[in-house]
Amino acid sequence: MAGGQQEIEKVENETKENLAGLKENPNLEAKTEIEKFEKRQEREISEPLIEEARSKRNQLLEERGLLPMSKADFDQYFASKDFEIRTDLKQGNTGDCYAVAAIHAMSRSPHFEMIVRSSMKKLPDGSWEVKIPLLSKRFQTITITSEELLPQENKNLGKTIKTEGGIAPDLREVLTPVQGKEGLQVLEAAFIKQKFGMVDRLAAEGGWGDKVLLALGGDNFKRVSFNASRYNEETEQLEYLGLANIPNQKYVDDVLENFDPEIHIATAVTKFFDRRTLIAKVAGKLGLSLEGQVKGAYRAEETLKFFVPGHSYSISKVDRQKKIVTLANPWDTSKPIDLTFGQFKKTFCRLEAIRIDNAKLLKNMEAVARVAA
Amino acid sequence: MSNIHELAKKFEVQIKEAIAQKFPVPPEELSLLLEDKEGVYLSEEEPNTLGCLIVGQKNGYLYLVMAKIEEDGQSLRDFKSDIVS
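YS: structure for the whole thing
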Protein backbone atom coordinates (compact mmCIF):
# COMPACT_ATOMS: atom_id res chain seq x y z
CA MET A 1 0.00 0.00 0.00
CA ALA A 2 1.23 3.48 -0.75
CA GLY A 3 2.15 5.78 2.08
CA GLY A 4 -0.88 8.03 1.68
CA GLN A 5 -1.38 11.71 1.06
CA GLN A 6 2.03 12.74 2.45
CA GLU A 7 3.76 10.53 -0.05
CA ILE A 8 1.70 12.06 -2.83
CA GLU A 9 2.47 15.57 -1.63
CA LYS A 10 6.16 14.75 -1.61
CA VAL A 11 6.18 13.72 -5.26
CA GLU A 12 3.86 16.59 -6.16
CA ASN A 13 6.25 19.09 -4.60
CA GLU A 14 9.13 17.53 -6.47
CA THR A 15 7.13 17.77 -9.68
CA LYS A 16 6.35 21.44 -9.03
CA GLU A 17 10.05 22.11 -8.47
CA ASN A 18 10.89 20.34 -11.69
CA LEU A 19 8.22 22.08 -13.73
CA ALA A 20 8.16 25.59 -12.24
CA GLY A 21 10.00 28.04 -14.45
CA LEU A 22 10.12 25.73 -17.43
CA LYS A 23 8.33 27.88 -20.00
CA GLU A 24 9.17 25.83 -23.01
CA ASN A 25 8.28 22.27 -23.61
CA PRO A 26 8.42 21.00 -20.04
CA ASN A 27 7.09 17.64 -21.09
CA LEU A 28 10.06 16.35 -22.97
CA GLU A 29 13.03 15.55 -20.86
CA ALA A 30 16.16 14.24 -22.53
CA LYS A 31 14.80 15.38 -25.89
CA THR A 32 17.96 14.44 -27.71
CA GLU A 33 17.69 10.87 -26.51
CA ILE A 34 14.03 10.79 -27.57
CA GLU A 35 14.90 11.98 -31.05
CA LYS A 36 17.60 9.37 -31.29
CA PHE A 37 15.26 6.63 -30.08
CA GLU A 38 16.31 3.72 -32.22
CA LYS A 39 13.63 2.50 -34.60
CA ARG A 40 12.69 -0.98 -33.65
CA GLN A 41 13.62 -3.25 -36.50
CA GLU A 42 12.43 -6.71 -37.32
CA ARG A 43 14.86 -9.26 -35.97
CA GLU A 44 17.13 -10.73 -38.65
CA ILE A 45 18.86 -12.98 -36.17
CA SER A 46 16.95 -15.66 -34.26
CA GLU A 47 16.42 -15.46 -30.49
CA PRO A 48 18.76 -18.41 -29.65
CA LEU A 49 21.58 -16.61 -31.47
CA ILE A 50 20.82 -13.33 -29.66
CA GLU A 51 20.77 -15.25 -26.38
CA GLU A 52 24.14 -16.77 -27.28
CA ALA A 53 25.49 -13.29 -27.96
CA ARG A 54 24.27 -12.09 -24.54
CA SER A 55 26.04 -15.00 -22.94
CA LYS A 56 29.24 -14.06 -24.82
CA ARG A 57 28.78 -10.45 -23.69
CA ASN A 58 28.55 -11.67 -20.07
CA GLN A 59 31.68 -13.78 -20.49
CA LEU A 60 33.43 -10.81 -22.03
CA LEU A 61 32.50 -8.65 -19.05
CA GLU A 62 33.58 -11.39 -16.68
CA GLU A 63 36.97 -11.50 -18.34
CA ARG A 64 37.33 -7.74 -18.35
CA GLY A 65 35.98 -6.74 -15.02
CA LEU A 66 35.34 -9.76 -12.85
CA LEU A 67 31.68 -10.40 -12.15
CA PRO A 68 31.91 -10.96 -8.39
CA MET A 69 28.68 -12.89 -8.07
CA SER A 70 28.63 -16.48 -9.27
CA LYS A 71 25.90 -17.72 -11.59
CA ALA A 72 24.83 -20.15 -8.84
CA ASP A 73 24.36 -17.31 -6.33
CA PHE A 74 22.40 -15.33 -8.89
CA ASP A 75 20.11 -18.29 -9.50
CA GLN A 76 19.65 -18.81 -5.76
CA TYR A 77 18.98 -15.23 -4.67
CA PHE A 78 17.32 -13.67 -7.70
CA ALA A 79 15.63 -16.27 -9.90
CA SER A 80 12.21 -17.43 -8.81
CA LYS A 81 12.44 -20.77 -10.55
CA ASP A 82 15.19 -22.79 -12.13
CA PHE A 83 16.28 -21.27 -15.41
CA GLU A 84 13.88 -18.39 -14.97
CA ILE A 85 14.98 -14.91 -14.05
CA ARG A 86 11.46 -13.52 -13.99
CA THR A 87 10.39 -13.03 -10.46
CA ASP A 88 7.27 -11.86 -8.69
CA LEU A 89 7.28 -9.09 -6.14
CA LYS A 90 4.79 -7.69 -3.67
CA GLN A 91 5.37 -4.23 -2.29
CA GLY A 92 5.40 -4.13 1.52
CA ASN A 93 3.39 -1.53 3.41
CA THR A 94 6.11 1.05 2.75
CA GLY A 95 5.13 3.69 0.20
CA ASP A 96 8.01 3.05 -2.15
CA CYS A 97 6.01 1.74 -5.12
CA TYR A 98 8.37 3.65 -7.41
CA ALA A 99 11.40 1.69 -6.13
CA VAL A 100 9.62 -1.68 -6.30
CA ALA A 101 8.32 -0.91 -9.79
CA ALA A 102 11.83 0.06 -10.92
CA ILE A 103 13.38 -3.08 -9.43
CA HIS A 104 10.68 -5.24 -11.00
CA ALA A 105 11.16 -3.56 -14.39
CA MET A 106 14.89 -4.13 -14.11
CA SER A 107 14.40 -7.78 -13.12
CA ARG A 108 12.44 -8.32 -16.35
CA SER A 109 15.35 -7.20 -18.48
CA PRO A 110 17.45 -9.88 -20.19
CA HIS A 111 20.44 -7.89 -18.92
CA PHE A 112 19.45 -8.14 -15.28
CA GLU A 113 21.79 -11.05 -14.57
CA MET A 114 24.78 -9.14 -15.90
CA ILE A 115 23.81 -5.98 -14.02
CA VAL A 116 23.39 -7.80 -10.73
CA ARG A 117 26.39 -10.11 -10.97
CA SER A 118 28.63 -7.17 -11.74
CA SER A 119 27.86 -5.24 -8.61
CA MET A 120 26.41 -7.40 -5.86
CA LYS A 121 27.92 -10.06 -3.67
CA LYS A 122 26.71 -12.06 -0.68
CA LEU A 123 29.40 -12.19 2.02
CA PRO A 124 30.12 -15.25 4.21
CA ASP A 125 28.49 -13.59 7.27
CA GLY A 126 25.18 -13.33 5.39
CA SER A 127 25.42 -9.62 4.66
CA TRP A 128 25.56 -8.16 1.16
CA GLU A 129 27.91 -5.80 -0.60
CA VAL A 130 26.34 -3.65 -3.32
CA LYS A 131 28.29 -1.26 -5.55
CA ILE A 132 26.12 1.71 -6.54
CA PRO A 133 25.91 2.89 -9.25
CA LEU A 134 26.18 -0.59 -10.64
CA LEU A 135 29.36 -0.95 -12.69
CA SER A 136 30.35 2.68 -12.33
CA LYS A 137 34.02 3.48 -11.88
CA ARG A 138 33.02 5.88 -9.12
CA PHE A 139 30.84 3.55 -7.12
CA GLN A 140 29.89 3.66 -3.47
CA THR A 141 29.95 0.35 -1.62
CA ILE A 142 26.76 -0.20 0.38
CA THR A 143 26.62 -3.01 2.91
CA ILE A 144 23.24 -4.50 3.75
CA THR A 145 22.97 -6.75 6.78
CA SER A 146 20.28 -9.38 7.34
CA GLU A 147 18.78 -7.17 10.07
CA GLU A 148 18.29 -4.36 7.57
CA LEU A 149 16.00 -6.62 5.57
CA LEU A 150 13.64 -7.15 8.50
CA PRO A 151 10.43 -5.18 9.12
CA GLN A 152 11.25 -1.86 10.71
CA GLU A 153 9.54 -0.02 13.54
CA ASN A 154 7.36 2.78 12.18
CA LYS A 155 8.50 6.00 13.84
CA ASN A 156 5.35 7.60 12.51
CA LEU A 157 2.99 5.21 14.30
CA GLY A 158 -0.01 7.05 15.73
CA LYS A 159 1.03 10.36 14.22
CA THR A 160 -1.46 12.05 11.99
CA ILE A 161 -1.04 12.05 8.27
CA LYS A 162 -2.92 14.23 5.81
CA THR A 163 -5.62 12.59 3.75
CA GLU A 164 -7.91 14.00 1.11
CA GLY A 165 -10.70 14.47 3.59
CA GLY A 166 -8.64 15.66 6.55
CA ILE A 167 -6.24 13.83 8.79
CA ALA A 168 -5.92 10.23 9.93
CA PRO A 169 -3.54 8.33 12.17
CA ASP A 170 -0.75 6.22 10.66
CA LEU A 171 -1.64 2.79 11.98
CA ARG A 172 1.29 0.87 10.55
CA GLU A 173 3.26 -0.62 13.47
CA VAL A 174 6.10 -1.74 11.26
CA LEU A 175 7.27 -0.90 7.76
CA THR A 176 7.90 -4.03 5.77
CA PRO A 177 10.32 -4.67 2.90
CA VAL A 178 9.23 -5.84 -0.53
CA GLN A 179 8.22 -9.52 -0.58
CA GLY A 180 10.29 -11.50 -3.03
CA LYS A 181 13.66 -13.13 -3.44
CA GLU A 182 16.36 -12.00 -1.02
CA GLY A 183 18.49 -10.37 -3.69
CA LEU A 184 15.61 -8.11 -4.72
CA GLN A 185 15.00 -7.11 -1.10
CA VAL A 186 18.68 -6.23 -0.92
CA LEU A 187 18.39 -4.03 -4.01
CA GLU A 188 15.46 -2.15 -2.43
CA ALA A 189 17.36 -1.69 0.85
CA ALA A 190 20.58 -0.68 -0.94
CA PHE A 191 18.78 1.99 -2.94
CA ILE A 192 17.23 3.42 0.27
CA LYS A 193 20.55 3.32 2.14
CA GLN A 194 22.43 4.94 -0.72
CA LYS A 195 19.87 7.75 -0.91
CA PHE A 196 19.18 8.35 2.79
CA GLY A 197 22.37 7.10 4.48
CA MET A 198 20.46 4.34 6.26
CA VAL A 199 17.68 1.88 5.49
CA ASP A 200 14.99 4.35 6.55
CA ARG A 201 11.83 3.03 4.92
CA LEU A 202 9.76 5.97 6.10
CA ALA A 203 12.09 8.46 4.42
CA ALA A 204 11.92 6.43 1.21
CA GLU A 205 8.16 6.92 0.80
CA GLY A 206 7.41 8.80 -2.42
CA GLY A 207 9.66 9.13 -5.45
CA TRP A 208 10.16 8.39 -9.12
CA GLY A 209 11.06 5.10 -10.76
CA ASP A 210 13.56 6.49 -13.22
CA LYS A 211 15.49 8.14 -10.39
CA VAL A 212 15.90 4.68 -8.87
CA LEU A 213 17.05 3.24 -12.17
CA LEU A 214 19.49 6.09 -12.67
CA ALA A 215 20.74 5.84 -9.07
CA LEU A 216 21.34 2.12 -9.53
CA GLY A 217 22.69 2.34 -13.07
CA GLY A 218 24.52 5.66 -13.01
CA ASP A 219 25.97 6.81 -16.29
CA ASN A 220 25.63 3.33 -17.77
CA PHE A 221 21.98 4.17 -18.39
CA LYS A 222 20.52 6.56 -20.93
CA ARG A 223 17.12 8.00 -20.15
CA VAL A 224 13.88 8.94 -21.88
CA SER A 225 11.20 10.56 -19.75
CA PHE A 226 7.79 12.08 -20.45
CA ASN A 227 5.85 14.01 -17.87
CA ALA A 228 2.38 15.24 -18.75
CA SER A 229 1.78 17.11 -15.48
CA ARG A 230 1.63 20.86 -15.91
CA TYR A 231 2.27 23.51 -13.32
CA ASN A 232 -0.22 26.33 -13.69
CA GLU A 233 1.51 29.42 -12.36
CA GLU A 234 -1.73 31.39 -12.17
CA THR A 235 -3.55 28.91 -9.97
CA GLU A 236 -0.30 27.57 -8.47
CA GLN A 237 -1.74 24.11 -9.00
CA LEU A 238 -0.50 21.05 -10.77
CA GLU A 239 -2.76 19.97 -13.60
CA TYR A 240 -3.02 16.23 -13.93
CA LEU A 241 -3.08 15.22 -17.55
CA GLY A 242 -2.52 11.94 -19.29
CA LEU A 243 0.32 11.32 -21.71
CA ALA A 244 -2.32 11.74 -24.45
CA ASN A 245 -2.26 15.49 -23.67
CA ILE A 246 1.42 16.00 -24.40
CA PRO A 247 1.59 18.36 -27.41
CA ASN A 248 4.28 16.41 -29.25
CA GLN A 249 2.39 13.13 -29.50
CA LYS A 250 4.77 12.01 -32.20
CA TYR A 251 7.51 11.55 -29.61
CA VAL A 252 5.29 9.57 -27.24
CA ASP A 253 4.01 7.35 -30.04
CA ASP A 254 7.51 6.90 -31.37
CA VAL A 255 8.78 5.72 -28.01
CA LEU A 256 5.81 3.39 -27.46
CA GLU A 257 5.94 1.91 -30.95
CA ASN A 258 9.68 1.37 -30.80
CA PHE A 259 9.83 0.32 -27.19
CA ASP A 260 11.77 -2.89 -26.97
CA PRO A 261 11.76 -4.66 -23.58
CA GLU A 262 14.85 -6.51 -24.71
CA ILE A 263 16.66 -3.18 -24.62
CA HIS A 264 14.65 -0.79 -22.46
CA ILE A 265 13.65 -0.82 -18.82
CA ALA A 266 10.66 1.34 -17.91
CA THR A 267 8.19 2.44 -15.29
CA ALA A 268 5.07 4.58 -15.63
CA VAL A 269 3.07 6.65 -13.14
CA THR A 270 -0.72 6.94 -13.11
CA LYS A 271 -2.41 10.32 -12.99
CA PHE A 272 -2.95 11.82 -9.58
CA PHE A 273 -6.45 12.71 -8.50
CA ASP A 274 -7.33 16.22 -9.51
CA ARG A 275 -8.67 17.77 -6.31
CA ARG A 276 -10.62 20.31 -8.28
CA THR A 277 -12.90 17.69 -9.77
CA LEU A 278 -16.47 17.42 -8.55
CA ILE A 279 -15.94 13.98 -7.06
CA ALA A 280 -12.89 15.19 -5.14
CA LYS A 281 -14.76 18.23 -3.82
CA VAL A 282 -17.71 16.09 -2.76
CA ALA A 283 -15.39 13.60 -1.12
CA GLY A 284 -13.64 16.46 0.66
CA LYS A 285 -16.92 17.81 2.00
CA LEU A 286 -17.90 14.38 3.22
CA GLY A 287 -14.53 13.85 4.81
CA LEU A 288 -13.71 10.90 2.59
CA SER A 289 -10.25 9.99 1.40
CA LEU A 290 -10.04 9.38 -2.33
CA GLU A 291 -6.50 8.15 -2.22
CA GLY A 292 -7.21 6.01 0.78
CA GLN A 293 -10.25 4.54 -0.83
CA VAL A 294 -8.37 2.04 -2.94
CA LYS A 295 -7.40 1.24 -1.61
CA GLY A 296 -7.61 4.10 -3.61
CA ALA A 297 -8.28 2.78 -7.04
CA TYR A 298 -10.04 4.58 -9.86
CA ARG A 299 -11.35 3.18 -13.09
CA ALA A 300 -9.32 4.21 -16.07
CA GLU A 301 -11.00 5.76 -19.10
CA GLU A 302 -12.25 3.34 -21.74
CA THR A 303 -11.47 0.30 -19.66
CA LEU A 304 -12.95 -1.65 -16.77
CA LYS A 305 -9.56 -1.90 -15.12
CA PHE A 306 -8.82 -0.09 -11.88
CA PHE A 307 -5.65 1.82 -11.17
CA VAL A 308 -4.14 3.46 -8.11
CA PRO A 309 -3.68 7.23 -8.52
CA GLY A 310 -0.14 8.60 -8.39
CA HIS A 311 1.24 5.07 -8.34
CA SER A 312 4.22 3.60 -10.19
CA TYR A 313 3.82 0.53 -12.38
CA SER A 314 6.51 -1.39 -14.19
CA ILE A 315 6.28 -2.02 -17.92
CA SER A 316 6.76 -5.71 -18.68
CA LYS A 317 6.31 -5.72 -22.43
CA VAL A 318 4.94 -3.82 -25.40
CA ASP A 319 3.22 -5.49 -28.34
CA ARG A 320 3.62 -2.98 -31.10
CA GLN A 321 1.58 -4.97 -33.60
CA LYS A 322 -1.49 -5.04 -31.36
CA LYS A 323 -0.48 -1.73 -29.72
CA ILE A 324 -0.73 -3.20 -26.22
CA VAL A 325 1.32 -2.21 -23.18
CA THR A 326 1.61 -4.84 -20.45
CA LEU A 327 2.16 -3.44 -16.98
CA ALA A 328 2.58 -4.82 -13.47
CA ASN A 329 1.41 -3.25 -10.22
CA PRO A 330 4.17 -3.47 -7.57
CA TRP A 331 1.53 -4.52 -5.06
CA ASP A 332 1.49 -7.86 -6.90
CA THR A 333 3.56 -8.17 -10.03
CA SER A 334 2.29 -11.67 -10.84
CA LYS A 335 -0.87 -10.26 -12.45
CA PRO A 336 -0.17 -8.63 -15.82
CA ILE A 337 -2.35 -5.66 -16.86
CA ASP A 338 -2.87 -5.05 -20.58
CA LEU A 339 -3.82 -1.63 -21.94
CA THR A 340 -4.05 -0.36 -25.47
CA PHE A 341 -1.71 2.52 -26.32
CA GLY A 342 -4.72 4.87 -26.16
CA GLN A 343 -5.85 3.64 -22.74
CA PHE A 344 -2.29 3.78 -21.47
CA LYS A 345 -1.82 7.38 -22.57
CA LYS A 346 -5.08 8.43 -20.91
CA THR A 347 -4.34 6.63 -17.64
CA PHE A 348 -0.67 7.40 -17.13
CA CYS A 349 0.89 10.84 -16.78
CA ARG A 350 4.53 9.87 -16.72
CA LEU A 351 6.65 7.39 -18.63
CA GLU A 352 10.23 6.77 -17.68
CA ALA A 353 12.49 4.52 -19.73
CA ILE A 354 16.19 3.82 -19.62
CA ARG A 355 18.53 1.69 -21.62
CA ILE A 356 22.07 0.49 -21.10
CA ASP A 357 24.85 2.56 -22.68
CA ASN A 358 27.20 -0.26 -23.66
CA ALA A 359 30.03 2.07 -24.68
CA LYS A 360 30.10 3.58 -21.17
CA LEU A 361 29.62 0.17 -19.63
CA LEU A 362 32.64 -1.26 -21.40
CA LYS A 363 34.77 1.78 -20.56
CA ASN A 364 33.72 1.56 -16.95
CA MET A 365 34.50 -2.14 -16.92
CA GLU A 366 38.00 -1.36 -18.17
CA ALA A 367 38.43 1.03 -15.27
CA VAL A 368 37.06 -1.50 -12.76
CA ALA A 369 39.42 -4.15 -14.13
CA ARG A 370 42.38 -1.79 -13.76
CA VAL A 371 41.42 -1.02 -10.15
CA ALA A 372 41.04 -4.75 -9.46
CA ALA A 373 44.48 -5.46 -10.96
CA MET B 1 44.86 -12.67 -32.27
CA SER B 2 42.96 -15.87 -33.12
CA ASN B 3 42.06 -16.90 -36.65
CA ILE B 4 38.47 -15.84 -36.24
CA HIS B 5 39.52 -12.48 -34.79
CA GLU B 6 41.78 -11.99 -37.80
CA LEU B 7 38.93 -12.96 -40.09
CA ALA B 8 36.65 -10.41 -38.40
CA LYS B 9 39.38 -7.77 -38.69
CA LYS B 10 39.73 -8.57 -42.41
CA PHE B 11 35.97 -8.05 -42.90
CA GLU B 12 35.66 -5.11 -40.51
CA VAL B 13 34.27 -2.80 -43.21
CA GLN B 14 31.57 -5.26 -44.28
CA ILE B 15 30.64 -6.00 -40.66
CA LYS B 16 30.20 -2.30 -39.88
CA GLU B 17 28.30 -1.81 -43.13
CA ALA B 18 25.86 -4.56 -42.17
CA ILE B 19 24.92 -2.46 -39.14
CA ALA B 20 24.99 0.93 -40.85
CA GLN B 21 22.65 -0.30 -43.59
CA LYS B 22 20.02 -1.31 -41.04
CA PHE B 23 20.47 1.19 -38.22
CA PRO B 24 21.09 4.95 -38.33
CA VAL B 25 24.68 4.82 -37.12
CA PRO B 26 27.73 5.82 -39.14
CA PRO B 27 30.36 3.06 -39.50
CA GLU B 28 33.09 5.27 -38.03
CA GLU B 29 31.26 5.28 -34.69
CA LEU B 30 31.31 1.48 -34.50
CA SER B 31 34.03 -0.54 -32.79
CA LEU B 32 34.63 -4.26 -33.02
CA LEU B 33 35.70 -5.80 -29.72
CA LEU B 34 38.77 -7.47 -31.20
CA GLU B 35 40.77 -7.26 -27.96
CA ASP B 36 38.27 -9.49 -26.21
CA LYS B 37 38.30 -13.27 -26.68
CA GLU B 38 34.50 -13.38 -26.60
CA GLY B 39 34.16 -10.31 -28.84
CA VAL B 40 34.36 -12.62 -31.86
CA TYR B 41 33.20 -16.23 -31.64
CA LEU B 42 32.07 -19.28 -33.55
CA SER B 43 28.39 -19.89 -32.97
CA GLU B 44 27.46 -23.14 -31.28
CA GLU B 45 23.85 -22.60 -32.26
CA GLU B 46 24.48 -22.30 -36.00
CA PRO B 47 27.33 -24.21 -37.66
CA ASN B 48 29.98 -22.37 -39.71
CA THR B 49 28.75 -19.03 -38.48
CA LEU B 50 30.80 -16.24 -36.99
CA GLY B 51 29.38 -13.95 -34.32
CA CYS B 52 30.84 -10.52 -33.77
CA LEU B 53 29.96 -8.00 -31.04
CA ILE B 54 30.23 -4.34 -31.99
CA VAL B 55 29.67 -1.32 -29.78
CA GLY B 56 28.30 2.04 -30.94
CA GLN B 57 30.71 4.45 -29.27
CA LYS B 58 28.32 7.39 -29.32
CA ASN B 59 24.87 5.81 -29.12
CA GLY B 60 25.87 3.12 -26.64
CA TYR B 61 24.15 0.21 -28.39
CA LEU B 62 25.74 -3.22 -28.53
CA TYR B 63 25.22 -4.82 -31.93
CA LEU B 64 25.64 -8.35 -33.15
CA VAL B 65 26.69 -9.26 -36.67
CA MET B 66 26.50 -12.88 -37.77
CA ALA B 67 28.05 -14.11 -41.01
CA LYS B 68 28.54 -17.45 -42.73
CA ILE B 69 32.14 -18.63 -43.03
CA GLU B 70 33.04 -19.80 -46.53
CA GLU B 71 34.33 -23.33 -46.88
CA ASP B 72 37.90 -22.14 -47.33
CA GLY B 73 37.65 -20.44 -43.95
CA GLN B 74 39.09 -17.25 -45.41
CA SER B 75 36.03 -15.18 -46.10
CA LEU B 76 32.57 -14.27 -44.82
CA ARG B 77 29.18 -13.90 -46.51
CA ASP B 78 25.47 -13.35 -45.67
CA PHE B 79 25.93 -10.67 -43.05
CA LYS B 80 23.02 -10.14 -40.65
CA SER B 81 22.82 -7.58 -37.87
CA ASP B 82 20.70 -6.88 -34.78
CA ILE B 83 20.86 -5.04 -31.49
CA VAL B 84 21.83 -7.13 -28.46
CA SER B 85 21.37 -4.39 -25.86
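YS: worth flagging: Chain A touches chain B at residues 36, 38-39, 41, 43-46, 48-50, 52-54, 56-57, 59-60, 63-64, 110-111, 222, 260, 262-263, 355-362 (CB under 8 Å).
IM: good catch. Also Chain A has one domain: 5-372.
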